[in-house]
Amino acid sequence: MKQKNLKYLHIGCGDNVLPKPFINIDNRKKKGVLNLKAYPLRFKKNTFDLVYASHILEHFKKKQVLKVLVEWVRVLKPGGVLRISVPSFENLSKIYNIDKDIDNISGPLMGGQTYKDNFHYEIFNKKKLIKLLLSAGLEAIHPWDFKRTIHSKFWDFSQATTKEIPISLNLEGRKRSLNDDLNYEFKELNRILKRLKKDQMYKKKLKSIFKSI
What we know:
Layout: E1 8-11, E2 22-26, E3 34-35, E4 48-54, H1 65-74, E5 76-87, H2 89-99, H3 103-110, H4 126-135, E6 138-143, E7 161-162, E8 165-166, E9 168-175, H5 178-198, H6 200-212
Parallel strand pairs: 1-2, 1-4, 2-3, 4-5
Antiparallel strand pairs: 5-9, 6-9, 7-8
């Protein structure tokens, strides 16, 4: 794919405005930035090759987090990448245990609290975030290294360290293609059919359900 055909979305960019092919959005008015919310997004589905959000997801309440991720995946092209950075609870715990100075971790945990939306509502470790990303429709989820990204020269919290320990959990995944979804559904159907053959009681329950319809 040629560089000129790529479309990238940078969600919640703040003052960190990335160059083309990024479209930068933020809910605060900034020069060179589209004044748009991180959720819901005002873009058509299957629009972007990459969606990047650094330290944005934790600003949503627990019941919203999966919905937000599903929305971010929606605007990705099949095979496109969602790149996420959030405060790492595991690493923040390590930082705290060095000298028990809670001020070293209060910002990443609770937010800077300098304006209305600068509060954190959720915490993440690797296991939890992977589960959420899978549920949102991603596959091939793995850590990413900021040094190997096209935005490596533009500092944000994905690169931050305290006591020489990274404060962030950086994961990315690929949006499943239509064929991947069909294969998944086919496997699920096969699993159900195999269970039906083995479980007579389950089969009787299904028959009774169908008769009642």
